[in-house]
Batch of 2 targets.
Target 1
Amino acid sequence: MSGRGATVLYDVPGPRARLRNNVLTLVFGVVLLLVAYFVWTKFDEKGQWDGKLWEPFLRGDTWTELILPGLLNTLVAAALAAVLALLFGAVFGIARLSDHRWVRIPAGVVVEAFRAVPVLMLIFFAQYGGSLAGLVVTEFAAVVFGLTVYNGSVLAEIVRAGILAVPRGQAEAGSAIGLRKNQVMRLILLPQAVTAMMPAIVSQLVVLLKDTALGFVVAYADLLNAGARVVPANYANLIPSVIVIATVYIMINLALGYLANWLERRSRRSRKVAADPAAAEAAAGGEVALMR
Amino acid sequence: MEAVVDELPVILGAFWLTVKLTVVSGVISLVWGIVLAAMRVSPLPVLRGAGAVYVNVLRNTPLTLIIVFCGLGLGTVMSVQFSRDDLSLNSFWLSIIGLSAYTSAFVCEVVRSGINTVPLGQAEAARAIGLTFLQTLRLVILPQAVRTVIAPLGSLLNALVKNTTVAAAIGVMEAALRMKNLFDAHGDAIIPIFLGFAAGFVVLTLPLNLLSGRLARRLAVIR
């Protein structure tokens, strides 16, 4: 049902259906407008559309002093966690496919365990567990730890599924020309697997970026912290501020989403990749594709 | 280990709250998500547009932001109240609004992808016997669509179990925040407490995975 959209669910409307559709469009349009009006007046009663609550966002210093530093912190945490999570994912994804049982089983336990635990719990654990071990764990380190371990485990599953989706002949051909095991992995399997899994990997990185907002709970000075604590503390404008911050998040995530789509289209077009992205993604479990 | 045994009633209470959050917001998101999916495939451009805007906005906003908006924005600034004297009940319902609003966007996309798997002939046959759009959807398309997406819906539910911890951001005493409190109370037993809570989440999510896998196989539409 792609291409022409959902049109197979209903016929091309004739004169009567067109009339009915127009009436219904009018009715639902009015209903939606009423809902919007209701929300608008409720916020208006509390003075949320007051110009002086929104005015700070027209001034440069609100952005340069309060919001952009938060955005920078969010992006730094996301970037560092993304790099570490990719490393974690590559190492554990490959380790789970090891021929040695003493490597394969512990790696599997680690990946499955960290996938089952909520990120927020990992962040709390990093803070308290770190100080137990005598380390000074900053909010930044705790957030990066939580995001790395959780998303790294999910990426490990993606990498594993990607490698498994490369046709077996590829590895066999590699062995046949005398490559060692790590050469087969490094030169033959990984490049194809990563290309095939690129869209899923980018989607997971979007999840990671969104999850940096959890830093708010432990008072890491990220974008959400700027929008929900710092700016409202200065101008008492929580709702306008959260709406503005949400817009920033949405624009960043939509941009990354388009990147993921573009990569997917490109990898589908290219015939060089032997692994089938769709099959690999399905093998990695629904969550991979879904929670973005 | 002692700390975990001593605090067992408290820990179980926290997980009971997690379960309540999951079940209530899960049911709301399922219903609302199916309604949204129906809107997104309807013949009316107004509804399609409204559904698309809703899904794209909610899916691309961090859950923490949504919950904070519900808790502080709706709760404190707009004084939306569910109970005059019980503050914890208030934040419980506010976080349910946030969780449901967020999860339903994902449910909508999953159900919509399920609708795409229903063969064209099914919809055509339904129209040929004179069913209206809503009847086609309700009697023919959705029953088949939902059955094909049981497994993805299961992983969404699984993610929801973990996402309920975000309600800690507005002070709901579910598992994660309770764990932090116990860390404060028992500084010497951080690892056992963490393992206890981690085990709790495994206990909650593992049966869900098995069950959704079995359901998906049993209810699969044979084509």
Target 2
Amino acid sequence: MTNKPHPLSMASLPGLDKRYRAEKRFKFAGVLAVFSSLAFLGFLIVAIALKSAGAFQTYEVEILVKKEKYLELRDQPFIFLQSTMRYNLSGVVNGQAMREAVNMVVDGAEIDLLDHIENLQQNTRADGLGSYSVWVTLSNRVVSALSKQDIGTNLTARQQAWVEGWVANNKVRQRFNVGFLTNGDSRDPERAGIGSALVGSAFMLLVCMVLSFGVGILAAIYLEEFAPKNKYTVFLEVNINNLATVPSIIFGLLGLSVFLNLFGLPRSAAIVGGMVLALMTMPTIIIASRLALQSVPLSIREAAFSVGASPLQTVFHHVLPLALPGMLTGTILGMARAIGETAPLLMIGMLAFIVEAPDNIFDPASVLPVQIFLWAESPERGFEEKTAAAIIVLLAFLLVMNLTAIILRKKLEKKW
Amino acid sequence: MVTYTVNEDNNPDTVKAKIIVDKVSVAYGDHLALNDIALDIISNKVTALIGPSGCGKTTFLRCINRMNDLIGSCKVTGSILLDGYDIYAPEVDVEVLRRKVGMVFQKPNPFPKSIYDNIAYGVKIHGLASDKEELDAIVEQSLVRAGLFEEVADRLDVSGTSLSGGQQQRLCIARAIAISPDVILMDEPCSALDPIATAKIEELIHELKERYTIVIVTHSMQQAARVSDYTAFFHEGDLVEKGETSALFTNPNDKRTEAYITGRIG
Ligand SMILES: Nc1ncnc2c1ncn2[C@@H]1O[C@H](COP(=O)(O)OP(=O)(O)O)[C@@H](O)[C@H]1O
Ligand SMILES: [Mg+2]
């Protein structure tokens, strides 16, 4: 036996170990990069999620209302509330105590009470006897005291005693805050919700999708399949590619000067927002659609032509069905970008305080990202968690859209 | 309009030229791919086009169904008569021409649709079937003629792309004959197939020539010898020699033909 190295071993080739080390270093750097970005993302999402938790849940208290009081005082809501609170809480003997008692429940609780009872009324006989049991949302102060398990802060001694009494008698319950998803904006953080912003976003996205998908795909088909390849179409192509990189606020300026000032469309309406975002996403959709069309092999077109299909038939019967998954993916990704866009919407005045959900695309509307922007600027403490919760909803939307794009691509992808 | 008398001659003893190619030159931009080609393609016979790679066989074939129209830089001059009529005449509708002159490509290219739809497609767009039954009948008949029916009869709804290569190519042939063309152009139809699938296609070509005029490009001299009645040898854009296959292979006139068929160029 000699000491010669194995002819296929590492030692037989000088410098090989160095190559392996370089490979390892590179791999390590790659893994590090992936993990650090994941860590940042995770940190961000966890931080927002923790902050948002309060917005998704709410506390309610069971209030008893005497039927006779309801019948007597229903036309004077606030007095009705005061009387109800006096009936439900002990020691409401003076003005100060009454103020504290009313502050136990959310602002405007009298309206909720009356609404609830009215709903109950329809099922029972109004004979003026007995009492109703109604769940009423607690005020922000009480909720934050309850959710922090630390009753002392922000509450007076009397209020603390009331809360403790309620908790001891199982009169308080925790609920998923449906209002957050259904209510419109409000000055009162307890009542503010993203309902109208969701409707606004949906309208705007609808306008954006119809316009950008329709126009974008037709443009892509024309440019890719029918347009002659000359210097004009090359010029067009370069411009479309440039347009895809234009900052979105520029599209907002365009919308302001053209759609609002020139065409006189309503400010802050979903249609204008949708049009501006359509301009912004169209180049992306055109580029993605052209790539999808290009990836359809020539042999399919030749097959269609060889049996005597016209160019139009070839495109619509054979090429388009194969390119559609790619086109849809591009569109969904474009929409995902549009749904989170804020800057161009601010330019067209979409930052008004809007409570009512829009009925149509011409109504003043608020949209999710702008709602987040507005709440983030609000000084009231309650809006902090609302902001975080709205961000979570927006992120969930984006996630769903991106997942849809991926699933769609996997599902519709055809092998040829 | 030019009419040609050969085709109107009803004497069965005279050969009929289905296609008469004369003075055809093709250029891709500045590059001359075919130079002054003249060739008669005889009715109901198999004409093989042979020659080294890049000599212009595909280009020639694609002139006959005007597939070259799709290439912007491609310029065709000269005349090609189908049944006596110039196929490059301005009033010619290429879709009608391609109904008459079908094509089978080098790589099988079925549509990514069901076997049935692959064949029915051409029939539908040309309105050749008046109802569903007629369409079914045409699909079945085409599959039978392409020798594929028995293999796929119970799964006409599976994707054409799921068949084997040889089956795909026969599906493409079925697709071509479904619209009852007069001429079938085949561009190296067996080059992507194994020997058994190749033998099947060659057998099929034998049967098909009863109904159709066939022009086939092939890389294989043996295949040309086996399937064709006439052979044309192309070389660097020129049509060097043409004639009956047996004569051309046993007794070539041109030195280049001889060199090619004995394997010295190619
Ligand atoms: N689409 C095209 N554009 C430019 N040149 C082409 C094109 N197709 C073929 N050619 C050229 O034309 C010549 C003949 O090609 P082709 O007909 O494909 O030859 P073959 O089929 O005999 O191998 C070759 O020189 C080739 O480079
Ligand atoms: Mg070729």
